[in-house]
Amino acid sequence: MARDSSARGPRASATVPMGPWTVPGPARASVPGPLPGADAPGAAGRPVVWLLAGYPLWWALGMGQFAYWLFAVPMAAELVRRHRTAGLRVPPGFWLWALFLVWSLLGLLLVPLDMPGTVPGGGGYGGALLRVVNYLVLTVLLLYVGNLTERELPARAVVSALSVLCLATIAGGYLGMAAPRFEFTAPLEYLLPPGLASDAYMQALVHPASAQVMDIFGYDSARPKAPWEYTNIWGYMLSLLLVWLVVGWVVQGTGWIRWGASAAAALAVVPAVYSLNRALWAGLALSLAYGAALALRRGRVVLVGTCAAAAVAALLVLAASPLADVVRARADTPHSDDGRAATNAAAVEAADLSPVMGWGTTRESQGSPDSIAVGPTSECPGCGQHVIGNAGQLWMTLITTGWVGAALSTGFFALVAWRYRSTASPVGQGALLTVLLLFWYMFFYVALMSPLAVTMVAVALLWRDGEPGLRRRGAARTRGGLR
């Protein structure tokens, strides 16, 4: 298997697979039309587009994140075929991610151990195995997108699929606001054993609902989550997908597509505020700052000034609207800050106790930040015994794989971001921002499964965008009559 195909020179060109190109035959006529502004993908690239653009359907069927598992099967089969015929390419620094996978697998040996200061037997193989399988599925997605050529899977098709998913997320936000109690039993739920289907965690995965209704201000508040499992995941996904909506349909779009996408991005502000996700608000601000920096680097001072003036005007309008009251109320009500701080500190302590391998899975803390005697009751089922590692991807990685595993995981994404820091194309810059946002949200939100899937797709697009030699070969073959 070829390792880092981003190397330059004649020797690197020999490692780029030039195996059989997928040439659609008569069945091409049955392929659905391309998404707005997208080139139609070849047969090999359709699973990625169907997975991303069709995610709201998979959510409604109760599959949710298990849809990644389903689509990983044909992706893995195609990777095996390519490995046998032409070899596989891997992105720069993939050895770091591969070692992280090994660390996660070896961590399963530590699951039966009891961690000091946690509930005895609080760990379990169910969550640990689910986590490892998710990481393996994400690896398949990364290698699959990265090994397909531009003709088999045009970057514009991927960007448009992510843009469609962004529109569905915005619509889900408004659904959560308008009908916070909306939910239904998905088909997959009927197929699960009653004991498994009634499990709280499994319910979040397979039971479609429009919002999480939570007591934050002393009364029930509806926080949108459709079509995702939790409100925090909804906020994380909205932040990532807005990047691709802007890149694909605002920057690269034309006519009604550009204006419609701009209006949708503006409308996303309302459910974003009502989600009460403070990390999301800061993440959106960081994304705007990133875009402004890119524009200034290109000398577009007038554009930045115009956008800044429009942003100030929008803030003034928002300040006079009911949204400002929501923001002020959220700022005055930290709600979960103490609990998060306690569990994050416990994750660091867990990594200190087992720095090399971690503990294999998350654990439940004994008591609460106030007293070790505090625990769940019928009147307060959420009191005490908080899950250590559930407050962010970094904290989860620390307790499950230790300091070494956390360094391997974050090191991979840091190396990719650094390697392609000078990318100049709109798709490359959007992909770079997606990867960089991981380093913000990892302190607040768990990235498994969908946010990390979008991040892996971004890594693959960065990797492909950084290999002009491979793109030129694809273009040459297209000009040679393969169409």
Number of strands: 4
**Assembly state here?**
single chain
* Sheet with most strands: strand arrangement: 1-2
H/E topology pattern: HHHHHHHHHHEEHHHHHHHEEHHHH
Please summarize the sheet with the most strands.
2 strands, antiparallel
What does this structure look like?
The structure is a single chain. The protein is globular, with a radius of gyration of 23 Å. Mean pLDDT is 84; it is low at 1-33, 370-375 and 472-483. With 483 residues, it is mostly helical. The protein contains 21 helices and four strands. The protein has helices spanning 10-15, 46-53, 55-60, 66-85, 94-106, 125-147, 155-178, 187-191, 194-197, 200-206, 231-251, 255-267, 269-274, 278-297, 301-319, 322-332, 337-353, 393-419, 426-441, 450-465, 468-482; strands at residues 211-215, 220-224, 363-364, 387-388.
Summarize the structure.
With 483 residues, the protein is an all-alpha fold.
Features:
globular, two-stranded antiparallel ribbon, mainly alpha, 483 residues, two-stranded antiparallel sheet, 21 helices
What topology does this entry show?
Blueprint: H1 10-15, H2 46-53, H3 55-60, H4 66-85, H5 94-106, H6 125-147, H7 155-178, H8 187-191, H9 194-197, H10 200-206, E1 211-215, E2 220-224, H11 231-251, H12 255-267, H13 269-274, H14 278-297, H15 301-319, H16 322-332, H17 337-353, E3 363-364, E4 387-388, H18 393-419, H19 426-441, H20 450-465, H21 468-482
Antiparallel strand pairs: 1-2, 3-4
Helix pairs in contact: 2-7, 4-6, 5-18, 6-20, 7-11, 11-12, 11-14, 11-19, 11-20, 14-19, 17-18, 18-19, 19-20
